[in-house]
Known about the structure:
The structure holds two protein chains of two kinds. Chain A is mostly beta strands. Chain A contains no helices and eleven strands. By secondary structure, chain B is mostly beta strands. Helix content of chain B is 0%, strand content 55%. In chain B, strands 2, 4, 5, 9, 10 and 11 form a six-stranded mixed β-sheet that branches. In chain B, strand 4 and strand 5 (45-50) form a beta hairpin.
Amino acid sequence: GAVVSQHPSRVICKSGTSVKIECRSLDFQATTMFWYRQFPKQSLMLMATSNEGSKATYEQGVEKDKFLINHASLTLSTLTVTSAHPEDSSFYICSATTGTGNTGELFFGEGSRLTVL
Amino acid sequence: QKEVEQNSGPLSVPEGAIASLNCTYSDRVSQSFFWYRQYSGKSPELIMSIYSNGDKEDGRFTAQLNKASQYVSLLIRDSQPSDSATYLCAVRTGGFKTIFGAGTRLFVKA
């Protein structure tokens, strides 16, 4: 399968600071990437769809000013959690698809575990 | 009604048995269906994808799809302790978004 790399894998920060998470497609070009969040013992919740060269599309209830997404190239998308608070502590996972339309399989990065003190 | 529903389990089976995991979905126009495995603290990994009604086999795994019933399942034959994980059913909706079920926890007892 396709390789998606995510960095950092773990980050601990103080409340009020901002944290940037990078997601890279290593062996393919990803026009679209997806950002998910997963709380303990819960499923993946789609936060936003990241489109190369355009604004991200956010799911209902996700604050676009708090979770800044930039997809500047076909292989890199970044998620910045601004002014992080303890309730933002979660497992953030990016994914990308090699396909278009309704057939593309999602390949996931390793995930980034954010802990906000 | 949730878009993708799974029994949270846990489902416990003895080693060597068949594990059967089920999933239903609400969006009738969905065309793509996936099963992912997730170990604790790790990100999901793709096991199977299925797009047409019927069965699709890959090694010990068989995915079954019935679009009329809006039902998709995963069978794991000859279950091994290493298969113990949470299995996520995912559906790509008509809006090009992939929605995940809550997952079923599977325990395979040695």
